[in-house]
Amino acid sequence: xxxxxxxxxxxxxxxxxxxIALKGIDxxxxxxxxxxxxxxxxxxxxxxxxxxxxxxxxxxGEIFVYGKKVEIREPRDAKKYGITxxxxxxxxxxxxxxxxxxxxxxxxxxxxxxxxxxxxxAKKYLELVGLRVNxxxxxxxxxxxxxxxxxxxxxxxENSRIICVDELTxxxxxxxxxxxxxxxxxxxxxxxxxxxxxxxxxxxxxxxRVTVLRDGMKIFTKSITETSPNEVVSAMLGRDPGELYxxxxxxxxxxxxxxxxxxxxxxxxxxKATEVQLKDISFDLYRGEILGVTGLLGxxxxxxxxxxVGMQKIVSGKIIxxxxxxxxxxxxxxxxxxxxxxxxxxxxxxVVPLLNIAENxxxxxxxxxxxxxxxxxxxxxxxxAETWIRMLNISTxxxxxxxxxxxxxxxxxxxxxxxxxLRPRILIFDEPTFGIDIGAKAEIxxxxxxLPLQGLSIILLSSDIDEVLSLxxxxxxxxxxxxxxxxxxxxxxxxxxxxxxx
Amino acid sequence: MAKLRVSxxxxxxxxxxxxxxxxxxxxxxxxLLILFxxxxxxxxxxxxxxxxVAVLLMYLPITFLALGEALIILMGSIDLSPGSIMGLxxxxxxxxxxxxxxxxxxxxTLGLGIGILSGLxxxxxxxxxxxxxxxxxxxxxxxxxxxxxxxxxxxxxxxxELPKLGILVKQYFMLPLMVWFLIPLIPAYYxxxxxxxxxxxxxxxxxxxxAVRASGVNADLIKIIAFSLAGLFYAISxxxxxxxxxxxxxxxxxxYELNAIAACVLGGISLAGGSGSPFxxxxxxxxxxxxxxxLILLGINxxxxxxxxxxxxxVAGAALTRGVRFSK
Lengths: 502, 328
Known about the structure:
By secondary structure, chain A is α/β, with parallel strands linked by helices. Chain A contains 17 helices and 20 strands. In chain A, a hairpin with a 2-residue loop joins β19 (474-479) and β20.
């Protein structure tokens, strides 16, 4: 590793509607180094490499390649400067051969394709990444690890000098990961790597330096020899006293009654490559309890919440609601049992942005408050909406305001109102304060903490340890789809949890 | 005092500007007014009473197709079968009246039923067989058109009680009967979309189908109902044309699916779903009819009508997508 800088950014800013994803990132990549970037969900890691690769365009700031200022507007510009990106979700074209995939960006429309030459050339690059397959094989017939290596071969064929790896495919097993690492180790004699990961142990296996991002800001860049896993994890999680809201814990009396929900040996089958399989999950939930569930990205928190409302395929195990085993096939079933899930991805699963606040709140139960289920009772709808706007302190110019134009925190309150209007018994919050500003965070935490007083039971899925610690009665730590430990939240310290996360 | 007036004029202009910039109907209404004024200038015959009635007679069948299509596009789907269902209903009704000697009233009811069933079939295939609406309704476009040719054998069906349908174009209080339908129709359609649960769910599905499903709503049922209702609108359109022609002709509605979609787009309905006004199909269909009328008045070769409509559509589409980009 030399000290020559191959790529650097200065005050890089990227804005999206409602959020600033990158808040002025200064970054240097040295020749021949593996530079890890770590951070929580939404810290800006992926956005950063996407800006470097021209998938997003930076709003402010400068990018330098070998000291020369460059403009990167689209992926082709990035390729021109020798920058390439290997995506987390394997980006290969399944119906083309290995060789065709490797040279996909080389084809010229005015020239024919010499298949034999292509295959001979492909062999060279396959050898470099240690992949022994016939270049004429269709990529869809390869295993996932092999598809990932084809992407590395493609990056080499493009003659890239700077290779960004946005998470290794989560489907790799430890042995396969090791194989990819030894290839990176070999390649870094000539190439430089930016390596995004959420697995701290990977950083200490492969990286030379590590940069920690949090909420779009760089916390630090350190050489791997100067830092420790604990320091990196703490920096990732951060701590902002302003956003803390500490709830008075309930007395232990809630545990004297029978649990309202029992989950026994639950195992799921993921339907997408990005989903995590839950393995043998068992826990009880008591009436009036807030049960915190935490873990790093990819631990299976969302999957756990979704499994309880029929959004994950359950292959074995039982869900018992008040002594009765129940089968939940979809969110509609779950709602009838009084279980409601508030998704992490608010824009995708939570709200209808083009509808107004009142319409979003009454959406699931509008049929019940309409005459014969057909003629809407607008006055009643407005009254319901106004009540919730007052109770949850939803800040909006009017109940007719489009939800898409509200801030993330206010949208979250609208979803909470929608859920509470259904009078549920169990509410599952998935990252309820993720990506919303500090003031709204504290308010949503206060709302959550008051719900058990009305007899509701809460499952709080959150990667924010401080949130889990300040709100929960008990804490479950998940890792890789399994329960690591269930702890009573009495004198529990964040260090205890951080220790379990890694 | 003078100061006050200046500021109130400025306020009014400002209000007009915000209306034009924000309201989803602003673009369509302004284009309609411009087209109307331009037509009045280029052709002296345009503004005559007889021509305006002719425009309305052309306008009505297209409007009903657009009203059905709007339900589907608002849901974020597409329906390619309006023209064919319209044609099928028209010839099937003629066949029932003329060859099966069934009374006109019953035959029309059966015709409307055929429209609803065709829409229902569309809806079932989309939700239960999980096929894209484009594919399902393309199949319906072909199959229903095939049936119209089979039923008619390629000829027109005339006679029997069919001429009685002429009542639809008979003049009452200066205007043909079917034109009077518009007066209750406009508020009724607004009510359907803005004051019924079905209307709310149609907008919600178009806005974010996944969120609607995650809220525990039976989105499939809503889709099936919406497609069936659209089938009913297409069927009414078929009956109206039958009233004008008083003869079941295999080519009725041929190519009209494009008129239906164009009317929705010109009226300001987003093809992405979830946004558009209940008045959009009414306005869009009027713009479309106006263009056709003025081209006829100017004696332009009918083949050019398609070209002009295509150009107008591209301009409208460009304006519309720009608008969406700004609003986001």
